[in-house]
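Appendix C. Worked example: V-type proton ATPase subunit a
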Amino acid sequence: MAEARAGGCCPPMDLFRSEAMQLVQLIIPIESAHQTVSNLGDLGLIQFKDLNADKSPFQRTYAAQIKKFGEMARKLRFFREQMVKSGITPLTKPGAKSDIDVDDLEVKLGELEAELVEMNANNEKLQRSYNELVEYKLVLNKAGEFFSSALRNATALQKELESQQTGEESLDTPLLLDREILNDPSKQVKLGFITGLVPKEKSMPFERIIFRATRGNVYIKLAAVEEPVVDPVSGEKVEKNVFVVFYSGEKAKTKILKICEAFGANRYPFTEDFGKQILMISEVSGRISEMKAAIDAGLFHRSHLLQTIGDQFVQWNTLVRNEKSIYHTLNMLSLDVTKKCLVAEGWSPVFGSKQIQDALQRAAFDSNSQVGTIFQVLHTTELPPTYFCTNKFTSAFQDIVDAYGVAKYQEANPGVFTIVTFPFLFAIMFGDWGHGICLLLAALIFIIREKKLSGQKLGDITEMTFGGRYVILMMALFSIYTGVIYNEFFSVPFELFAPSAYACRDLSCRDATTAGLIKVLPTYPFGVDPVWHGSRSELPFLNSLKMKMSILIGVAQMNLGIILSYFNAIYFKNSLNIWFQFIPQLIFLNSLFGYLSLLIIVKWSTGSQADLYHVMIYMFLSPTDELGENQLFPRQKTVQLVLLLLALVSVPWMLLPKPFLLKMQHKARHQGESYTPLQSTEESLQVETNHDSHGHEEFEFSEVFVHQMIHTIEFVLGAVSNTASYLRLWALSLAHSELSSVFFEKVLLLAWGYNNILILLVGAIVFIFVTVGVLLVMETLSAFLHALRLHWVEFQNKFYEGDGYKFYPFSFGSVNYEDDE
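Step 2, the predicted output written as structure tokens:
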């Protein structure tokens, strides 16, 4: 919108007052309703009111259409998820816009979803079969190795026994029964076995449970698989062990099978016949190759389908979102009695009337409607929304103000002044032109790459920093300015504009104190003389300077706030606020702290040694005492008495007259309303509703008086506390300067003094990290928050109500942006 205004089609941007708004009514023929709302969505200049607030979403006219587009949006979300999983990025800039029929798109999306779901199901089955075959091959290999080694051992044992039979009997010779069993295969016990894979982490519990369940009547052999395998059930890579469990009896087999099922062990058939084992391995290997080829072909076909979807995804998604938002808006309109027209009401800026009417005419022409849309402005006492036309530079500053509260319709907007005062107050606390240059470089990186970054998904902190890039730019520029005034570059002073005005009286002073310094040159032309840094008088001098400067700036900004309350009162034609709020507040603040600011300036100008603390304290405690050496100008005592009297008078001036005058105004407005002509039932109900809605029927004097008393006490106490609050400018500036000095002297200079490259390198790295982490991140955040508080509390509470509500027009651009979020 801001770009449109810059193009010349709209009046020049005015941030001081929000745009003039109007409540408009549109009577739209049914046949052109869709096209009309679509054109208005492209325009983005109307905030529609919900005229069907009493109806549930299912009772509204276009509930079926919204359900349809909701289902289409679900299918598009499914496509996006599948593309993300496959690593396919949709084209962000689709080709030439083509007219897509919504019904055809619905059918096409359904077909594509069914095809993709079928592909996924087939691929899942193939992948599961493939993973099972891979596991089966591992079982065949590992179990085959075990059986072959067992056979070799058995053969060796058989040969050993046969050799022992021919020789002499010994203690190790088997008994007669054992010999019979070995010689007669029919008398040998046949053991059954189960083979499969079990997760490695479950192997020990698996083995223990089987042993206990069968009371030790089993033999378990485990072999580790070298690499993780994909589990056929979960589809995740898992480290597994191949197991072979030997058992005797059907009961043991049943128990083992149940335990395998409980532990998620996959079982596979296995034969003792080595010939069949070799055939099974070759058969499984062949099936694995076939399955792999089938999976690759399926994935290629699926990737091709997703790529086809991705080429038009953005276009389809935008169409579905826009259509859904159109029908959401149509559901906010009310049907005419004849059910041939839709009635819409909404807020729009006055400057947009011509554009809205042009959009309505185009919609009637495009939809071949015989009757055009009727556009009329309604007169209402309802408070309009607040709309500021901002651009990418001013929007961040306006957001700072809106975070406190949205401006009431057409009240003075502090955002105009915040553009300058916010970065300036930040810079007073952050003043160092070295640190300012670092901030400037960071802001410039964001600004130079803003086109690229604006289209990317950023993290929360990065996105917030990117959104405030122009605020950071202004803060950096003002920090460089105040840093030059403080003459600090990473706490190091430089003779930027001229040599120092002071020199040593003799060689013994060594710049350790100003006692040995004499003025030999003209005064340093701009900022603080570099000779002050490092001297004994540095802290007393800079503390005095920054403290007094903070008070001057604070009083000036609070006076600006009070003056803006005068402009608000003039604009809203509220003379009571001028006479009984603006004038007494201005008198009270300047009688005390305006006078203090004057004393500071006089003391600086004259070089007086007067104690301002003493002057201000005894102005209240002993106003008639002589000032003595603390007198700064003639008749100062008389001036102080007059100012003190004005300050005392301004308090009841703020408190008492306004509630009584409001009561008199209310009586005058409603005088003669005791006897009124009889009205019809509908008219009387309408009058009562209007009275109730605007609160004009009753006047509670006690509430108004208490409110005024609270406001008066808040201002009187706030004048003191708010002025003291501005001393944070001095405190944070001092803290920043001292931290910077400590890091420079105790880290960088200390490392430099060792004359060792390694120590110097470590010291430089530490210095960079603490400078970035503490001074450029933590101190920046601290100064930012304190500047925020000074604007919200000390400045804005003097005039800013902030109880309005924002203008949110129906716009396709905002709909798409919110959905992307």
